[in-house]
Amino acid sequence: MKLKRAHRAPQSETIIALIDVVFFLLVFFMLIGRMDATAPFDVVPPQAQTGRDMPAGGITLAVSEDGDLALDGNGISAGVLPAALTKELTKDPAFRLRINAHRDADLRHVLPLVSQAEALGILDVILVVTPERSLPSGGRP
Fold first, then answer.
1. pLDDT at 24 over 60
2. What is the pTM of this model?
C-alpha cells in the first residue's frame, strides 16, 4: 500500500510586505526626524540693524581681505594693536570699537580682534555690515 502525502499549498510570501512596511517607516522617520544637534537651552540669533545711523564716537578698525589692519585710517600691526586700544580705553572707558572688515576677509582675521577687544575690557564692539541688495534671481551680484 502506498501512502500519499497531502499536497501542501505554497505559502504566500508575507515577509516581503513586512519588509516594505519597515522600509517605509524607516524613510518616514528619517524625513521627519531632526538631524542636527540641538542646544539644551533656547538660542535666539541676533538681528542685524540696518537703515540706522552708525553710533558716533569711538574708533574704526579696518581689516583688509588679506588681514592687514588700519586703526582710524592708519596702518597698524597686530602686535601693536592691543597697546593702541588700551591707550584709547584709558582716555574713555566707554568708547566703542567699530570693526569694518572686507567682505572677503576670512573669519580667522576678524574673530580674534573681537576676543582681544573683550579681553581688554571694551564693552561696545560694532561689526560694520552692508545690507544685501535684493536680487531678482536670488544670486550674488
1. yes
2. 0.58
